Amino acid sequence: MILYTMMPHELIFTSEAQEFGRQRTVNFNGIPLLVELEDDHSFRIIRILSSDPKHYLDSRCKPGEKISYF
What we know:
Pfam families: YlzJ (PF14035). The protein is mostly beta strands.
């Protein structure tokens, strides 16, 4: 099987026990994102994991932006 994808190998073939350190996948307003933990109350967006073009136009979830989970 050949996968034509831009996704990293670690995101496609994950195990339940494997953690990526400070990186997590979260769902922010219906948009799946790859984020990195910045401090106790915020994440920095690394990548948008959606195939919907409208999600890339949302100014709240650009890579590099900080989001809060509280």
